Amino acid sequence: MDIPLESMTVPEKLMAIETIWDSICKSPNDVPVPDWHKQELENRIKRLESGESQLLDWEDVKNRLNELGQ
User: What pTM did the predictor assign?
Assistant: First the structure.
């Protein structure tokens, strides 16, 4: 398949990406997940359960990022 990326505008490219992503989401079981991803998720769950890590809401994350940028 040849996609004419060079002649597409940025909005057209973004629309193509969205269309492709929507198509992939229709069959998530077909998406391969590397073993290292699974292991990392297991590690993160363990850290959350042990209290070593905590979840942050989006507002907290944005505030922290803004503080780092100052």
Answer: 0.56
Whole-number Å distance between alpha carbons of 17 and 23: 10
What does the block give as tokens for 58?
A: 């989006």
Map residue 37 onto helix, strand or coil: helix
Residues near 55 by Cβ (< 8 Å), separated by ≥ 6? Answer: 48
Per residue in 21-57, pLDDT (tens digit) is 999 999 999 999 999 999 999 999 999 999 999 999 9
* Rounded-to-integer distance, Cα 5 and Cα 17, Å: 11
Contacts of 16 (CB under 8 A, 6+ apart): 3, 8
The single-letter DSSP state of residue 28 is G
